[in-house]
Amino acid sequence: MGATTAKSAFGQGVLLGLPFILVIVPFGALFGVVATEAGLDLWATMGFSALVIAGAAQFTALSLMGEDAATWLVIVTALAVNLRMAMYSAALVPHLGAAPLWQRACAAYLLVDQTFAAASATYDQRPEMDLRAKLALFFGIATPIVPLWYVSSLAGALLGASIPEAWALDFALPLTFIAMLGPMLRTLAHVGAALVSIVLSLAFAGLPAGVGLLLAGGAAMVTGALVETWSERRT
Amino acid sequence: MNGAEVWIVILALGAGTYLIRFSFLGLIGSRRLPEFVLRLLRYTPVALFPGIIAPLVLSPAATDGQFDPARGLAALFTLGVALVTRNMLAAIAAGAVSLYTFLWLLG
User: Fold this and answer.
1) Residue A154, SS3?
2) Residue A147: inside a domain
3) Is residue A216 included in any domain, yes or no?
4) What is the number of alpha carbons within 13 Å of residue B103 lying toward its C-beta?
5) Inter-chain contact B20–A175, Cβ cutoff 8 Å?
6) Contact A148, A123 (CB under 8 A)
7) Predicted pLDDT of residue A172
8) Distances A197 to A158, A220, A230 between C-alpha atoms, Å
């Protein structure tokens, strides 16, 4: 096989991104609906989806705003949910680090769970790809994903305005978090972190909104990291 | 939260998230993070989500903070489906169906 041209790498990226439409569209629409139910106007809902483009953090911010948490606590907690993206950014340096700054700046904007997962898996499988092909592949993957995130949020926001209260959409938020959490509980360390988070967030329920969550989350992160260290020593 | 505060959250969260994404790719380069820091980063979502979920499930705002059996059972069912299928969308769908079923049965 000859060297992959940038054009064909872009096309391959688009194909890799397509299956994620099945995740992005319902999740984005759900955000639009829940944000509208929470009282955000169309511009604010779209502001979240265009500037933050991170479903879990967007839902976290909605949840804390619903509890009237202080503005800085909403920001800090939702940013903490996004800290995992620093790992993604670090993992892409060997592949895209030599690209011009503006291209790295664009790639950073498009760096979401799905684009990272598909790109890094492909880079590992095909070490012969050059920088141009790798960049083209990355932008190709993002092409069906990111625009559809905006569009589905918009559709959800327009739909959400016409949904009656009897639908109990208040509970869409916790159910969405549970659905995101389930697949993450892969190891004893993850389960331990989750249990500490539950117990402490309930124990700290009397503190000002958002403070208890941040303390519980910090303790739970340390728990997860310590349990992981401990289980590695045992094996 | 008023409109101006919502936009402060959106702009700060957007800028902060962008800086996290840009961090190594744009600024720090290929310097390695200490192993324990990487470990902490790995557990951020799983450390925060249960703490968000637990109060919302145990004292839902829609029932004025009183525990609601229908919502509680739907939460349990959703967790079960999420653990078994490892599929977020399947769990959301199962959660919606179970919520309406339990609300209808118990409500």
Assistant:
1) helix
2) yes
3) yes
4) 15
5) no
6) no
7) 83
8) 35, 5, 19
User: How far, in Å, CA of B77 to CA of B97, rounded?
Assistant: 10
> What is the rounded distance in angstroms from the CA atom of residue A122 to the CA atom of residue A96?
13
The ipTM assigned to this model is: 0.88
Distance from CA of B64 to the nearest CA of A (A): 12
Of the residues A113, A131, A166, which one is the last residue of a structural domain? Answer: A166
Q: Do A161 and A194 have their domain in common?
A: no
Angle at A140 between CA A46 and CA A53, to 5 degrees: 25
Query: Do A207 and A130 belong to one domain?
Result: no
Show residues of chain A in contact with B21, CB under 8 Å: 85, 88-89, 108-109, 111
What are the backbone dihedrals phi and psi of residue A98, each rounded to the nearest 5 degrees, phi first?
Answer: -90, 0
Range with the lowest mean pLDDT among A2-6, A11-15, A108-112, B71-75? A2-6
In B63-82, the residues whose Cβ lies within 8 Å of chain A are 71, 74-75, 78-79, 81-82
**B30-41 average pLDDT score:** 77
Question: Do residues B24 and A86 touch, judged by C-beta distance below 8 A?
Answer: yes
- Residue span of the structural domain in which A146 resides: 6-166
Does residue A205 belong to any structural domain of this protein? yes
Q: What is the pLDDT of residue A1?
A: 42
> How much is the pTM?
0.83
Measured distance CA(B10)–CA(B16) in Å, rounded: 10
Q: Which of B42, B50, B51, B23 is closest to A84 using CA atoms? A: B42
pLDDT digits (tens, 9 = 90+) for A57-84: 999 999 999 888 999 999 999 999 898 8
Name the residue ranges covered by the structural domains of chain B.
49-106
End-to-end CA distance of chain A: 42
B10 touches chain A (CB under 8 A): yes
Looking at the structure, tell me whether residues A153 and A192 fall in a common domain: no
